[in-house]
Each structure stands twice: as structure tokens, then as C-alpha cells.
Amino acid sequence: MEISENLLTTLGFDHMQAQVYLAALELGEATMQALARKSGVNRSTIYTFIDDLKDRGYILETPKNKRRVYSAVHPEHLVGMQKARLAELQNVLPELLAVYNTSTTKPRVTFYEGIQGLKEVYADMLREKKEIVAYEDLSNLTPEVRSHIFEWFPKERARKDILIKTISRDNPFTREFVKHNRGFLRETKFVTSSELKTDVNIYGDKVALIDLQSKPPFAVLIENSNLAETLRTVWRQLWDKLGPVVG
């Protein structure tokens, strides 16, 4: 149920709406009172959530035996609705691109939060298809970040032939991780005296500052060619002074 609820929130449902929709999905046809019991949503407020879901086409209302019953639309209908929205977005994409701020002097700063937000940042690195240089401390990885991001990102990056060079804090976890460097198109040099609280990824004209230890984790993505090139130059100077590539 938790997985389904998390998926629904990515489709625009809030927590309560997701609870009501999933309850309706399980019950088939149900009265408002039954939905309130099943979903755990207070009866005095469930009316609002049902009305919202009806307006968005996720819940159907039907008269039956002098009562009104409610049912969830088939999950496949959700897929169809998302495809329709994607088609609408693709239709207006040329207009959006026309007003997109492409200035190289004014930084574009975007904030991302949570696992889904981090996925967006790492997916952006894959879309850029540019070499990545980074500062990182792999001991900062929480189990959640490891399972949701580092189980797929290194493999997908290597599949897309994107090289990453990292200046990493020397610790047992990183020592174990770099054993797979060659297969993951990855080069690493160690620093021993620094404690890296924030990961920094520099690629193309972008700099991603990623805090994996915060709850929830977050990232700040800055798009500016001057800033990216300056930080890349500083990174290269340190890289050249460090010892040999490990792994």
C-alpha cells in the first residue's frame, strides 16, 4: 500500500487523496461512510477529498438504491490520463522553449528535495551526457539513497558512456565501492584529511550541490557556464596534485 501511495503522490495526489482513492480501489463500490472507515480519513472531511477526486476524474459517483456510491476509475485510466497530459505538454513545448531563459550570465538555480528530487538531478546528469567531475563522500549514502539511486545511476551512466571522475574521501565504504570503478566508467582519487559534508557534481554548464545526510536529502542545481568552468578548474588543479587513480 505504501508503494502505491508513493506512486500516486508522484501523479499529483496528496496523502489524503491517495488514501481515499486506494480505499475506493479496494472496496469496488462503497458509500462515503465505508470509504471514510477504510481510508482512515475523518468523515467530516472526506467529502472534500471525494469531490476533488471526482472533479479530476479519479472517482465516479453513482446513484444506487436511493444512495450514492463511489468507485475508483480503473488504474489503466490513470495511465491514459497521464499520457494525455504528456501529449498536451509536448504540444506546448515549443512555446515553453521559446521563453526559456538561456542567458549564460544569469544563473538558473533550482531546489530539489527528497528521493524523487534527487532522482531528477541524477537523471539530468544522464540527459546532459557530459563528463562529470565530482567531490564526494560515499559514507554519506543512506540506505534509502543507495537503494533508490545508486542501484541504478552508476549502471545507467556507464551504459550511456558517461565518464565520472571523483575526488573522494578515503574510507572503507569508498574502498569497497571503487573496486567496481572500471565497469562503471569511473576514476577516483582519494583525499584523507577532508570531511566532505556535501557532494558536488560538475557537468556541462551545471553544478549540483547534493546533501545526502539531511532529512530529507536535498540538492541545489545551478546552471551557469562561468561558475561551472571556475569550479571545474579548481577541481582539476586539486586532481592533478593528488596521488594515482585507485580502483
TrEMBL record:
UniProt feature coiled coil, ranges: none
Residue ranges occupied by any Transcription regulator TrmB N-terminal domain in the UniProt entry: 8-76
Xref: InterPro entries: TrmB-like, Tscrpt_reg_TrmB_N, WH-like_DNA-bd_sf, WH_DNA-bd_sf
Gene3D superfamilies named in the record: Winged helix-like DNA-binding domain superfamily/Winged helix DNA-binding domain
One Pfam family in the UniProt entry: TrmB
Superkingdom to which the source organism belongs: Bacteria
Name of the molecule in the record: Transcription regulator TrmB N-terminal domain-containing protein
Gene source species: Candidatus Kaiserbacteria bacterium RIFCSPHIGHO2_01_FULL_55_17
